[in-house]
Sequence to fold (1058 residues):
Amino acid sequence: MLVQNKGIIIGLVLLPFLLFAQTLLWSNMYNTTGSGYSWGDDVCIDQLNVYVSGDANTPPSVYDMLVIKYEIAQGSQEDPWELDYGYDDWVGMMCQDDSLIYITGYYQHDPNSSFAIKIRTVVIYKSNMTQKWAESYGGDYELSKGYGIAVDQSGCIYVVGTTHGDCVVLKYDPYGNLLWQSIHHHGYHSFWNKVVITNTGELFVMGRLSQGVEDKDIGIAKYSPDDGTLLALQTWHPDPNETCIDDPCDIDYDAAGNIYVAGATYWGSENSHPVVLKYDSNLNLIWTYHYFDPSGNACHPHDLAVSRATGECYITGRRYVSYSNHNVLTIAINPQGGLLWNEEYGSAGEDEGEKLAITPSCVYVTGRYYGTPPNTKNFLLLCYWRRPWTNQLLWAVDYDFGGEDQSRAIALSRRSPRTSYIACAGERLTSPFAITTVLYRCREPIDMYVWGVAPSNIPEATGYNNSHRLIRDTQGILHLMFTSGNNIYHTSLQDRSWSEPEVVAEGMYPSLLCGSNGKLYSIYAHNEPYPTFLEELRFAVRDAGGWIITDFPVAHTCNSFLWGIGAPSFAIKDTIGYFVFESIVGPLHPRPDSGYMIMIIPRQGQALVYGKFSLSHPENFQYQILDMFSYPIPPIPVDTIKYREIVKDSLVSPSIAVDADGVVHILWEGKGDSLRYYRIQDTMITREFYPGTEIDYPFITTRGDQIEHFWWDMGGVKYRYGWTGKTALSQVRTIAVGNSPFSSGPYLTWTKQDDIYSSLYYGKIPASGMIEPVELGSMEMDLFTYPLIFYNPPRFNAPASLDIVWTEYCAQDSLCDIFYRNIPIEEPPPTYTFDMGEETPVPVCVQRDGFKVLGPEDYQSFDFDSTELIYHLPLHSPHTKYKIRWTYYHEEANKLKLQFKIDDILHHNRWVNPGEKITEETWIPDACLHDNEITIGVKKLSGTIAVLSGIEIESKEVGGGGPQGGEAGIASPFYLARIYPNPTRGMLHIKFKSSGEQRVDINLYDVSGRLVAEIFDGKSKIAVNEIHYSLKGLPGGIYFLETKARDYRHTEKVIHLP
Fold:
């Protein structure tokens, strides 16, 4: 790849999924006037500018200190700040704040004496590159040099170096006044060369302490920032009985205040090898890490970086392959002092890693690389993925300034969780000599990169958010389907990385679910543009042998007045698949083999299409039009050449789910001015329309027995829920600000776009009020779209966690990528939450007189009844134990005595004082769960009213199996699904499921055991059986319903309210 920009990018090595993962913004050379080399020593970067310090060779062969300022946007250069003392050298530089640059080094004040060298410290204003102050330190002929600099929170400056062969630390106030100096004598030619100030304000230095000409140690010291008192000193030497030279290179620290030191030692062999030391804040050694080259070759580190958050540390340097062949060596070490990974990068020349910088995801290494033509040194920038992975190197790029070049400094500015600006500085070593700088913009994964998709599919690679595409199978493996180009891909998370995506089929908008048999099922849209107009809903299944695409469509529109198939939504219940999609309404058109279509489509409206099919025999599909609306007259004409884009832009909305009773639920936005909700039970269809302003992104799903609705309307994510077997819905409330909502379990993810930023969030769904959002990322240049989430509940010894996948688009680089993050959940929220005390009763409410709101807190709103509050909840989940928690509150004149009961099996009495909030909890007895439902009562035993503020129910899996991926059920020979309502006033609905025909008897008895009614006596149908029985004429009271089938017998109490 060749790019001309004041130089040439000679080589670009990268993995296919991170194509264009970095962009060269600009490169610049500052040509010097002397006949000798010039050096770029250090580089800093802020939000607006890049600053490079260096030494410029000027006639007559002397060196001047200078700082060059470049504008980030264009790379334009301002006049540099320059200091000419004769023979000068910058060593350390810092950009601590928005206004100042701090530099240290040394200069020769008497050109006739090599000992006439002093430490020079300078502070420069960034705005106009003028000097604020400059100070010198050292005797006239003491040979003093400054090597390192740091600035504390108060603006005081610390400089370390050497003076007359001793180690020295200096502290200046912000105005250049020397506050103290501390000199440590430890043998001639000792020095401190690095200094750090931790986040707690502690001062540590590192350097070399001389024990003799051939015996030098790594030294680490802790000083008091107040007065320069030496608080602790450690010298590191691997073997007191062996003489060797230990060479320190860098020091860093973590958030806990631990200190890390990197260097090289010749101990143990004739060749050097890297060593990393970890100390606590009192300089007690915690561990030592040695890296020995497997081939016994010499290795030498040059730089160290430590993750503040994790304590992982990284070093870079060189590995000697031979005398004239070196490779860049990069090593990652875990917080316990073990090797995470090590990587080499190099050519046949003398390559070297000089400096590195890290982000939460990546390690950037700069140095030199012998590129093309051979034996030509180039600037090198490598990007490694921090976590151990199959492919550690994400990309590498080397830049040629047209001569012998090398980079010696790196600076990083993070603009977002995804984007970093990387500045590298160094020198051109062939005439004309120059100080050289490059600036890259780099994109990186937050946690784990999945794949790069074709930009033509922006931004819906993981969209639309109307159906499941991220699921776990029965073995717990995470699967993802997405679109790239006009192809559908499938990938799964294997160990620590995603598998190579495989092409499943040609098409768009795949839905993905897992059946109880462990197979993966997908439906997707296949819309071919002019001239074929092949419009089909296709079906695929994956077992151990791979994906199988059926030879026939599940549905097609090419021979009807429907045009095109939008993003389908897919649900599974037992062995039946259910789907819904939106289609354009237009004139009839022939099949593709009957001739080509005219060039204009008169779009007349849009239709909602619903259907179902057997997973084992999808050819026996059936579908129907549930609803449609017409466009205003005349119809909207559309060029058929852009047909696929029409489908992509307009047919994206309906969402489908199936509850535990097999009732189908569908949300559709229609024309966008009302939310349309459909319930389909057998052949009965009910429709409810809810007005809105600008509705989009509907998504419907089931969470156990709860049916949850999400959609966007006027900038807010709206939410309401229903319950299996009940038509009542909760009241609508806004739970987040943003769009593209998608949920799994009790968690929601969504995006938010404004004029500047695109943001990605997740959070747990509360019983009332807004979600407390957790931000995953917010960026100016990137666009977050269509996040998917999968909730992993606690299972046995595995803690709860969230899997989140999303598409990300960078308009500046025309990149479209899919990313993944796993988020541990320390305290999973309750399975179900009910906040009582709203105008619309919660859907499970059977009886209440009304509600009261006495304050802003959730517990201060409650349901009340003059005698007894009653709530009825189906709980269909097998192999589950439930813990229930309930809250009382009231402000009546006197205290209340309340009885909380479940199914007349569990009873708990409690006095509740006025203004007192009381929360109690207990495990629901197994005897209450045998019929897959519970009836909760709160009865007034003493006082004025019965009250209840809220209920929370937590679930705990205790055994069994089944799919973890979605809505498939577990087949059983016979299963009494539910009896409802219970308590009842006159009508009893009974549902049971049977895997085959068998004799079933259902009888009703009174409390004395007398047979009251024979409700059912005969053979059951396969699958769901439903009976509606009237209790009219029977006195109110307690009855017992007995159900008998082959190998099954169950008795359940029924309460008949008069």
Observations:
- The CA atoms of residues 532 and 592 lie 5 Å apart.
- The first strand starts at residue 8 and ends at 14.
